[in-house]
Each structure stands twice: as structure tokens, then as C-alpha cells.
Amino acid sequence: MGRYSQSEIESFVRGVLRDGFCVLPAHIAREKVGAWRAAFRPLLERHIEREGHRLNRGPSRYYVTLPFAAPFADPEVFEDEDILGVVRGLVGEDALLCQLATDTPLLGSDYQDVHRDAPPLFPEWGRETPPFQLAVNFPLVDVTEENGPFEVARATHMLSKEEGLRRLERGEARLEPLMLRAGDVMVRDVRGLHRGTPNRTPEPRPMVVLGYSRRWLFRPEVSIRVPRATLEALSERARFLLRFNPVVERLDDEGEEVYQSFAY
């Protein structure tokens, strides 16, 4: 059973439709977040050693895929009643889970260009559609002004990128930093204009991203490799969420990161 009533879930949904994002405060136990943080640190170090030459997300900023294994393959997170309530209210009852990863700026990172995480479905139409892809984000540390807060321009998800940038230039919209605390959960439409900012501290600032989308959306650059034994132990609902992801016999080394084109 979730923490929020149906009317409260509907309010979160309206918030995303209006602003492009909403925040569920203190939603994940800090102890759980701490376990993710401890398990993530060696993954980040290995990624930097192997893939540190890739600068597509900017200097000292790394996108690291998380393995679908403990502690990250946690139904209490990706199958959370409240998170799924908001997700389904935005992209349908048959939504799927297609991404499990992190974005982490380190000391030496810089401002990203303002961007969206997906292009419009029908650019020739000249209008935006209802939501089709969501990012569910939560930081593994408290976010401060110094360690690289995510900045988002409210209510730009239903504008073209060009119009959103014009509104930013004219002061009709602004980039606002989100000072999320460890345990806070943000649900956002990936089309909202946003950017990463510099981490000016010696400690990483990892942000988890769970990607949910409508069932018909396929982006080959993202997926979750699900071990067969893990899949068989999950609930029917969890298997439904993961139904289009590749099933593997075991998790080997991830190899090269394939999600290189991310900004639109």
C-alpha cells in the first residue's frame, strides 16, 4: 500500500502535466539510499577507469548503467506503489521500465548546455504530445548549491525547444536548481529543458535515473539486462514492467556504454 491517496497521486500527475516534474519528498529510506551509494562507488571508479575518455556528457560527468542485481534491482524502489501511480497516470497502465542508470558530476565538471532528453515524436506537426517517456530521479547524496544541482525550466516540456530557449532568453522562464535530499524522488517529463551544473566539491553527486515509458516506445540505446533467475523471482507486476528488456543468463561486464546521444 502506498503512502499517498489516489487524490494525492492525481495531484502529482497534474503537477507533472503542468510543470514538467513533481517531487515526492523523503520517499525512499535514507538507509536504502546509503546502501545504493556504497555499492555505486566502485562501479563509478571502474567506469572512470575504463570509459573516462568519453566526454559526451561534459568533463568529469559520467553516465553509469547500474546492474540489475542487489541492491539496485529493488522492487521496493522500481515497483513502489506511489511512483507507479504517478507513472501510470502519465504514460498508461501498460507502462514499461527500460532504464536503470546514474548521472554523476565530479569536481571539474561544468555547466551542460540546456537540453531535453528526447526529441519530439512528430517534429513536423509543430506541437507536443502527451507524455511518452519519464525519468524517475533520486540522488544518492543531499544536493547542495556546491555539488551540482540539476536545473530545470518549469513548464517547458510542452513547448518546442526553440520556444523554450526563447522564453529563457526573454526571462519568461528560468532555470531553477532543485535541492533534492537523499530519499527525495523526482518524476519528470524528459522533454523539459534542463541542464547539469558543476560539482565544486571533492565528493561525487550521483543521481539515479529509472526510465519509464509508454509500451510502444523503443529507444535501442537504453535497456536493462535482466538475469533470468532474478526475473523468475520477481512479482508478476515487476515482470510486466520489464517485459521488453533482454533476459540474460548472467550479468557479465557491461562493456562499452552505448547511450551516447542523450541531448536534444
Structure description:
With 264 residues, the protein is of the alpha+beta class. The chain has a single domain, classed as Sandwich (Jelly Rolls), CATH 2.60.120. Helices cover 28% and strands 20% of the residues. The protein is built from seven helices and eleven strands. Strands 1-7-4-9-3-2 form a six-stranded antiparallel beta sheet. A three-stranded antiparallel beta sheet has the order 6-5-8, with no helix packed on it. A two-stranded parallel sheet has the order 10-11. Helix 1 crosses helix 4. The longest helix is centred in the first third of the chain and has 22 residues. The N and C termini lie far apart (37 Å).
Give descriptors for this structure.
single chain; 264 residues; alpha+beta; Jelly Rolls; 3-stranded antiparallel β-sheet; 11 strands; globular
Please give a quick description of this structure.
With 264 residues, the chain is α+β, with helices and mostly antiparallel strands.
Q: Tell me the fraction of residues in β-strands, as a range.
A: 15-25%
Instruction: Count the domains.
Output: 1
Residue runs with pLDDT of under 50 for 5 or more positions: none
Q: What is the name of the CATH topology?
A: Jelly Rolls
Would you count the extended β strands for me? 11
- Please state how the strands of the largest beta sheet are arranged side by side: 1-7-4-9-3-2
Structural class: alpha+beta
Mind telling me the CATH superfamily name?
q2cbj1_9rhob like domain
Q: What sort of overall outline do the alpha carbons produce when their principal axes are compared?
A: globular
Main beta sheet, described? Answer: 6 strands, antiparallel
